[in-house]
Every structure is written in structure tokens, then in C-alpha cells.
From TrEMBL:
Entry superkingdom: Bacteria
Domain NAD-dependent epimerase/dehydratase: 2-214
Pfam families in the record: Epimerase
Protein's name in the database: NAD-dependent epimerase/dehydratase domain-containing protein
InterPro entries: Epimerase_deHydtase, Lipid_A_modif_metabolic_enz, NAD(P)-bd_dom_sf
Amino acid sequence: MSRRPVAVPPGARAAVEVRAADLTAPGAMAAAVADADVVVHAVAHIAGGTTWRIEDGDAAAERVNVGLVRDLVGALAARPRREPATVLFAGAVSQAGPLDKDVLDGTETDRPAGEYDSQKLRAERLLLAADAEGVLRGVSLRLPTVFGYGPGSVARDKGVVTTMARRALAGDPITMWHDGTVRRDLLYSADAARAFVAAARHAGALSGRHWLLGTGRGEPLGAVFGQVAALAAEHTGRPPVPVVSVEPPAHAEPGDFRSVTVDASAFRAATGWRPEVPLAEALRRTVAFCAEGAERNLP
């Protein structure tokens, strides 16, 4: 289910039917999940096509980020009596809020600061309440900073790592709102996808709570962007673009300046999942995908 028609990835292991729909339309969610055994809910409101940041009281964002989960729960509750469907929800590590600790393990008390994280938390709570009522089996996977492309990518990555790869390939400086020592747990998209597959296979053990995903490593963003600049230079034949600090914009949030590392040992113990793609290789693939022009055809 997509906003627009997309190509089925080559080498797909199953028969794939792509449906383009506006899930906010009446009845659209119920039609989408009518016969589903497993639902992966990865819908989010992306303002202006480039950012997840939203203003307080943004009704359009609330309709997508929270309302669609409410529609999903209602649709599954209204189905004829059958084995409850498994719903995997793409949450965010940032739902916990800007905490005074660098390593998160999922035991934190949630105190989201921004509207996006508050909406994601409300949606997650709707899902887990439905799990407690027996309507569905709900699993929330809280994601860190996910980035990158694979050969079968069908949508444009709007995250910070790929954005900076585009800047470097265009010859523009890579900019940071800090001195580069701020760390992020960076998870490659293929490893994130494998985590959802693992969660579907172990839904019985996972349902009813949230789980954190991550690599267990906090990477200094200045060093990461330096790698991106060097990889881009290999494609352009020009010297690497500079990585520079700039004044943060007015819409910057406290979490933008805090380091985050994720301890995902609980999820690993329950499923056996672990990240497989080293950061250097993930960055190489991402920059190459952008440099080769493959993403120009992506919606």
C-alpha cells in the first residue's frame, strides 16, 4: 500500500500486489487490511516532502500519525472473528524524549518534547491498548536514525545521512548544527527491514510492548559526514567538500544536540536479529546509489 504506484522490487520472493491509496479516505484502511495476517504500519506525515518536523496542533499530521492507527485498530476490531492480526508499528527512539543519558534500552519513562514524538507515542499507546484488549497482536519497533538505499528501494530517503550525501555530490558543504561530536546510532535500511521480518516471526513473544532497535554504537556525526564527503569525492573526482558547523535554525529541538546510542539487546535476545551491514559499507552503498542517479526516478 503506497501513496502512489511503485515498481515491485526485482527478485521478490512472493507475489506482490501494489495498491495506491489515500489511507485517510473513509474505508481505505479497512479495505487495505481486510484479509491481512500481518500489517507493517510504516506511515508517517512528512511535511513538505522533506521533513518529519511538525508544528503543535497540526491537524493534518495528527490525522496521519495518530488517526490512521485509530482507523487500523477499528478496522481489525470490526473483522469477523478470527485469529488476531499481528501489527508491527514503526515507532521512533526519540519518543522517549531528550533524556540525561546517552544509551537508551527501552526502560526509560517517555517524556517526548516535540509534537512528532508526542503523536508517535499516542499512536503506539493506541496500538498496545488494542493488544491488551485482544483486538490484535501489537508490536512497536522504535527506530533510531535509519538511512540508506538497497537495490530494491522504491522511495526517496529523506533522512539526514542521504541528504548530506546529495549535498556532497552536488559540491555543497556538509553542514552541522553542532561541533560534530554529537553521536547518533545509525541503522542501515536493510538491517531495519530484517528487524521487521524477525519481529513478524516472533510476534508471540514480542506483542504488547515496544522494543528498541539500534546498532549499539553512537557514531560522531562529524566523522560520519567526513566519510560521506570522501565517498562522494570518489564519484565526482573533485576534492571532498568541507564539513562545517553552522548556527542552528529556530526550529531546532533539544534532541538535535544530544547523543543517542541504542542498546537493542532485549530485541536481539527475543529474535536473534542483529545488524549485518557495517557502517562503512552502508555509507558506500548509499552514496553510490545517489551518485549513479538511481534515486532520481524514486517518488
